[in-house]
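**User:** My hope is that you can spare some time for a protein that puzzles me. I have put the entry right below:
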Amino acid sequence: MSFVRSISGCLLLLIFFATSALAVDPRNHLSQYAHSVWRIQDGFFNGPPNAITQTTDGYVWIGTPAGLFRFDGVRFVPWTPPPGESFYSSNQIYDLLGGKDGSLWIGTGSNLVRLKDNDLVNYSKGQGRINFIIEDRNGTIWFTRSRVSDGNGPLCQVIDTNVRCYGKADGITSDAGPVIEDSQGNLWIGSSNGLTRWGKTSSSAYLLSGLAAAKGLSGVDALAATSDGSLWVGIDRPGPDLGLQRMDQGILKPFVSSGLDGRTLQVGNLFLDRENALWVGTLGRGIYRIYKGQVDRFSEADGLSSDTISDFYEDREGNMWVATPEGIDCFRDTRVVSFSTREGLSAEFIGSVLAAKDGTVWIGNHAALDSIRQGDIASIQAKDGLPGVRITSMLEDHEGRLWLGVDNTLYIYEKGRFQPVNRHDGSPIGIIRSMAEDHEHNIWAVVIGQSIDIIRIQDSKIQQEFSSPELPVAYSVVADPESGIWLGVEDGLARYQNRKLEVFPSRFSQDRHVRLVIAMPDGAIFGQSTAGLIGWKNGKVQTLSVQNGLPCDSPYSMVSDAQGDLWLYLKCGLVRIPNTELQKWWENPNSVVTTRLFDAVDGARPSSVTFAPKASRSPDGKLWFANDYILQMIDPDNLAADGLPPPIHIEEVIADKKSYGNGQSIRLPSLTRDLEIDFTALSFVAPKKVRFRYKLEGYDTDWQDAGTRRQAFYNNLKPKKYTFRVIACNNDGTWNEIGAAQEFSIAPAWYQTNSFLIMSIAAAGFVVCGLYRLRVRQISRGMSARFDERLAERTRLARELHDTFLQTVQGSKMVADHALKDPADNGRAVQALKQLSMWLDQATVEGRTALNSLRASTTEKNDLAEAFRRAIEKCHRESDGETTFSVTGAQREIHPLVRDEIYRIGYEAIRNSCVHSGASRLEVTLEYAQDLVLRIGDNGSGIESEVVEQGKEGHFGLRGMRERAERIASKLTLVSSRDSGTVITLVVPGRVGFRAGHPHWSERLKSFFSQN
């Protein structure tokens, strides 16, 4: 970044000092320059500008009694001192100087101030008002002051951070105004009574007697030293020995010429520009400029902000700046120069222009035939013999005679006399719209009469008159490069050659009228219509319009220059098409030509005219265009591009409406949303045509074309470091490729930091790991639950097989063994077989019952009461006891898994009562309330307390019932005695057993079972 800044600084210095070839052209009138003005009344300043200068960074500075302003060509920005610094007691600025080292020297009402790199250094605090500041050839700063209170002299020198002043003892009078260095290195100081030439070893005083009577009230206010050693002196009082004077060889003489008597002026400022033209700023009479003895003037009547001049300055591009009490004026050259009544034309009704072979430019004006010859403008009017009012068309023939259409008559102007050319009957020809001379020296004229006719003249006499349909209606005529003529007609182009007419229709769909036709040096013919151009070359007809690259349509006139380039006077400006581009277009009619546009900023003010020539080329190569109210000229040989790339500055970084200025590196806060970067490029020739490109490194992948916009906008940039770069070009396309750069960074929010990112990644890892482990545990619990369920079912099946089926099988074996003890006892064997058959039948029933307990589920018939009813009926068939079954409360839906467990607990209790208790009565109650209650009671023999508590060894009925009750979070109680029998009660909580209408009840119950 520092390397880029150092390179940029070196480039700025090279640009600033490489300006010797740039200056406003002194051959042009002041009124012909482009003139811009910024007035106090428009709000640009808070006070009258006193001084103006430019620093090496390219900025223009204006000093006023209200403070300092900086200007970039578009915006005036008030400058305020850095925090803690000031101009001491006075902000009133009387003089400014841009130093060679980039400093800005500021002369205030109380002290001298140096501003560099936004740092202020104050000199001579409270020691007088600073009048003038200069920098000599050695880089030493000198200044003069008045109202001195420290007892030192009025001329001071800056030495490092100190000031050394010179007074009477050193040959300097008590007051000092303007100061200047001459070609020998001497300082000249003006005072209220004269001049002082001061050197380090000697000094000379030149007293002006005319100032003695007004000592202290007026005096020498301005000085200018020429390269030949002479000195211009400006005095703010008119008089015989006052006003504007020139000193040569020590002799002071007033300037008097045919255009100006310098003794009548009150001179407040003098300035010699790079072309050695002297600019004279007066008090009350505007600006005078003296160049090679010629005097020109520009005043408030011409648009100057005020007739009182406060300061002059010439910037690095040659623009002239003028400070007045009412504002700032700027004069600059334009590529297209205008001539009007302010430059000496007789009127502003320009109908045609003709550049003659002798260099005279003839202008067809209203009531006058104007001419420009070697810069002088003359006029032939009625008093000079002009035989009419309105000049229409013009032509110079091969003999150098001037043919003029005046009103409705044709004249030949030769040797100061006008000779009419009439019809055979003596009647006027009519209004001449266009004329041409062919190779046989016939003069062809397009005439506007009662109808539009074409006339051929030879030897000053009309030889033929053509009218439609012999020749078509025509608007313009030009000689064919070989023989015959070309006409611009209603439908395109027409060639009349060897008494034969050939028409080449226009290919435009609208407005096919060709109002102007010209011949190019290569033999090509161009016709002009409002839609574009129709071209003919070697029998080939093509059209050239905006589709081919023209910047706009509606051409008003056209002409070729000495290089064969085509110049078009279009509604948007003056356009140059190089000959190489024309040849490319001739080869490919669909090609797009590269053009150069000179618009209003360049001085072009296009308009249409009726007569011809509409444009003409003079022998010096200059091109002249008539535009109905002024005359315009461009010199194709003097269009060297402005080779000074504009200095570029990044002025301000604004984030979320808060300014952060500019600097080495800017750190913006976190969560910055809206970012604006303001930049500028300092070219004052045409500031509105400066174009920009920018790129934000770290965001943009390529350069962004901003056009003339001087801001860049970004939104929601990521937190990181960025480098913003901007380049620019001036109005001539000269690019400053180094440009300017600004580093900045956006701080991350707490959740955008690397540490937070690392912590987030770690936390995410922990979460993922935890979720993974949780899922593994869930899967493990699910598998364990399934394994437990299978194990429990196997255990239950083992219990049932052991308590029923296996015991029956074991009993059957004992019967068989008993019968085998006495095989000969048939009766015993028969009884054993009967008993064995009965026991095997029972084993079959018990085995089938065990299998049914695996297959059958209440899910098939969602009715727990019916299941118990069947179990009781079966018990009743197997025993003689009395059985009852009752259901209370409204039946509610129960989850199948819970129903199965309840049923198996109840079935086991019913079966034990029927088989083992020996009871004569069995009561079963099923109660639906807040909870589900199953009660089974008998009056049997009961169960021993040890068996109730611990179960019977080798039997699993009671244990299985308790395990099932525990699985469904239910309470199982068993009360038994030998006297009252046994009562088993199962209480199933409603939250477990009943559905209760919850949409996720099944999932909750499954989760419950998996947890239990």
Summary: The first helix runs from residue 2 to 17. The CA atoms of residues 858 and 866 lie 9 Å apart.
